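Quick question, first post here. What does this chain look like in 3D?
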Amino acid sequence: MNNLLISEPPLQVLPSLAKKVGLNEAIVLQQFHYWLERSNNTRDGYRWIYNSYSKWNEQFPFWSNATLRRTINNLEKQGFFITANYNKAGFDKTKWYRIDYERVSNASAQNEQTSCSKCASASAQNEQTNTNRLPETTTETNNNTSDNKSDHIQYKQIIDYLNEKAGKHFKNVESNKKLIRARWHEGYRLDDFKKVIDNKVLDANDANSFFTDKYLQPSTLFGNKFDQYLNQQIKPKVEKGTKSYGGVEF
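> Answer (accepted):
Ran it through. Tokens below.
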């Protein structure tokens, strides 16, 4: 038997889905759906899955890591994937994924070319042939302590908080949203943005700091040094002439 013909559990995808979202995207979407149906990770009423890119890549060995990353990012941008961070450790930026099934249904309704009988047949075949697929990572190092569980990027809340704390009047425009979106897609959330803003406002008020009021702007705060600012240890400012003993100032 030719070893390039089916002799192992195949990855399957409906042509109508591939036509709508792209072949690579359809393959990944179907695989994520497969694991979501088997996931025990329930948060906020939804099932979620998570994995490192290297582990995901083991399920798609015919792609480079860059191709896989690009494909997953495309699905996020198109709204088919919803991401969150439920990690226990603050430094753990592993993304959790679920599928926006309403978005998929709307896409299917716009391009319905497959009969229900074919869909049922494909579903049954998929169940029979995929029992040997690689599992997702099940060692849960996760769960987010942040109160923010929103799946939507909170542009306005972030800009408003910056304006309030820094005494600025920045607008919720695309140039600022682009910076926030980049950090959000890296796994940072509202509390992280607030912490960065708080840290750098304190820093700007410190006479010994090189970070001044003029740097309190989105292009600086939410740029490539975001993680550095987030983890910066800011010492509380102590007024001159004030001493304390046992926690009591005098």
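The chain has eleven helices and seven strands.
The two ends are 88 Å apart (CA to CA).
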